[in-house]
Amino acid sequence: MEYIKLQQNIEEIIDKAASNLKKSPKSRMTNTYLQARLDLLEGNWKSFESNHQTILLESKDPSNTYFTNETYDRVEEKYIDYKCQLKEALEKIKSTMSTSSTHTHNNLQSESNPSSAVKLPRIIIPVFSGKYAEWPTFHDLFESVINNNQTLAPVQKLHYLKGHLTGEAEQLIRHTPITDANYEQCWTLLKKRYSNTRYVSSCILNRLISQKTLTAASSYGVKQILDTTNECLSALTNMNIDVSTWDLIIIHLIIQKLDQESRKEWEHKISDYSDKIPTFSEFSTFLESRFRALEFLEPSTKKETRFKETERPKVFSITSSASSVSCPFCAEAHLLYQCKRFSQDSVQQRRDFVKSKALCFNCFGAKHSATHCKRDTTCRRCGRRHHSLLHLDSEQPPSAQPSRAVEGVKIHNQQPSTHEKSEQKEPGPGNIVAHAAESSGSSNSEIILTTALVKVENKGNCHILRAFLDQGAQLSFVTERAVQLLQLHKIPVNVSVDPSGLGGEKIPLSVPIKHKVQFKIQSICSSFSCVVQAYVVSQVTNPIPSQKVEIHDWQELKKLKMADPGYDTPGHVDMLLGAEVYGLTLTEGIVRNPTSTLTAQNTALGWILSGRTQVTRGTRK
Fold first, then answer.
1. Is 280 helix (H, G, I), strand (E, B) or coil?
2. SS3 381
3. What global pTM score does this model have?
4. What is the 3-state secondary structure (H, E, C) of 458-508?
5. How many domains does the chain have?
6. Which domain holds residue 49?
7. How far apart are CA 67 and CA 585, in angstroms?
8. Domain's final residue, options 152, 178, 195
9. Rounded to whole angstroms, how far apart are CA atoms 446 and 386?
């Protein structure tokens, strides 16, 4: 029964401790005091549980008052209540301390740095390039932000200074070592060079006077004149130049820059007090009200459309849907050279129609003649300045020039000679044909075109493909066969190839192209690689060359590492690489055959060969 007495004693201790907690003054309710009471409670409870286990093992009388009075359950509830009181008091103290600490920290921070309560935007110092007009702004900002900052060491200031200079200004102190001692020297050197008040003021005045004159009423134009004028006057004032008496001169200068209607408005405004000289402040108020009125009067739906200038294609022109054009011959939605009905008429009928509509004989455009046509295309049959659909058989070529015209990759102003009749092969509707225009049955020579073997890797598989490099083409093309082999992802497009860049005059319609792909080519001779974006077509060229060739009289060629070792044998071409890729591959080195027009050019893909050579008898295909 001794253990039961111990349990009763522990119950009394817990009761007394809970009562004393309620009587404790607030000054005593500290974190340490409460934690000590909590530790003592935990110790008493452990003893209570230990004694309880012993009583359960030793007592064999269930009618014992310890069990009948449910002593354990009663004390357990007291323990939990007391522990909750301690926990709540501790949490309250911690919360109060945290709030007080934060408040104190904020107060101290605000007292030491009053502006820290507001997060200001970062001050960006402009880069100074050495232009005198830029110096005042750069000087004032750098002086206030960096030079007058006492927390920065001189070497740090010099780092900032060099990092914000470019051009002539950067060259001035480029070779000065970055040390503490050199900062003042560099900053003084820059101020001595560019703090030329007379020259800077002259630049500002030139800008003020040379503003663009408005030809029509424009809210943007009036606003720009006002802003530029205010900026120039402020810059002069910052240089300690008194402009307060310049009102009459400034108004006289600026009024000449306004459109006629705005000038009338100004004269109407000051006509009531013509004996009084207006001030610049009154003139500024007028300009503000003027551009606000123009902003209200201008259509709200008016939007500025900016066109990105692009180079005009020399070979292929990509056109979008022709739904916005109308054929002058049949009134359907296509261009004249795409019209099937127009191409079915005789040449003379086509000529008469173009003449009756006052269209250009070269491009079928309106409002100009063939002599003033800016398009550099010519007839593919005679080389004259007219469209191929208007060619008469009686017309002869203007000169006998050797032909290197490649159908599909057109080299302008290069036509067959009069004694060499070109054999033109009509391509299919989806083909882009590229073969030498000169291929008569009696010819014993062949034009070699620039080909190269390239590695193309996709999805872990590497393939060697044959490419035709054409510096006259602005676009690149790849065959459907190569795309399937490489398993390339196709990107849908809605474009077409202008037939003026294709061979085969019997094609009145453009060749549709529905997809483009992107892939990376690698040289088989070096580490060169580049990404190519190409349009997918069924065929790029006919086999190149068209027949077997032999080169016997050029021993130096055998020492070169050719980009295409099979350049002399007809073979399938998988892609056409345009001028953009061609230019990337060029490197130093060119070798010419002293007895013929053959030329070898060094590229990152290897040596490429072009020019005329003899064919092998009996092996022509």
1. helix
2. coil
3. 0.34
4. ECCEEEEEEEEECCCCCCCEEEHHHHHHHCCCCEEEEEEECHHHCCCCCCC
5. 5
6. 2-112
7. 99
8. 195
9. 29
